[in-house]
Specification:
Length: 138
């Protein structure tokens, strides 16, 4: 019982409560998504390199749904889909961010990690020497 309860969640598509068997969607939406996949794949074969907006306009499938399907790698075999970088809106076909934003974010993360590391080292160093001097005093 409790194991099933742990897997109960709201379907991100329709909001219904369902038991997640790993697909992340309820059965009805999963089936719908499989249909979408076929529609989008055949659209992409005729229109390679389409943007999400173009696919939405042609198929009526919500951009949010398309994004989720892209993230799940649903259209990897069908060809490229272009969608906007989450940071600047440049059209990309891989990951969450364009190359520029990806590099900028990496830099920011590096800076944060470096300063965190320095802080940790400083604290560790101080603590270490304090312990050391205490031991010596004793
Ligand atoms: Zn659903
Ligand atoms: Zn960007």
């Amino acid at each position: 019982m409790s194991i099933i309860a742990n897997k109960m969640k709201n379907c991100p598509e329709c909001g219904r409560v369902f038991v997640d068997a790993g697909a992340g969607l309820c059965n009805a939406c999963l089936r719908k998504e499989e249909e979408y996949e076929i529609i989008v794949c055949s659209y992409l074969r005729d229109n390679p390199g389409s943007t999400i907006r173009q696919i939405y306009e042609a198929t009526g499938i919500k951009e949010r749904t398309l994004m989720r399907m892209i993230r799940m790698g649903r259209f990897l075999d069908a060809g490229e889909i272009k969608y906007p970088c989450e940071r600047c809106g440049t059209l990309i076909n891989e990951g969450k961010y364009c190359e520029k934003c990806g590099a900028a974010l990496q830099n920011e993360i590096k800076k944060v990690t470096e300063s965190l590391n320095k802080k940790m080292q400083n604290t560790a160093g101080k603590n270490g020497s304090e312990t050391y001097s205490t031991i010596r005093k004793v």
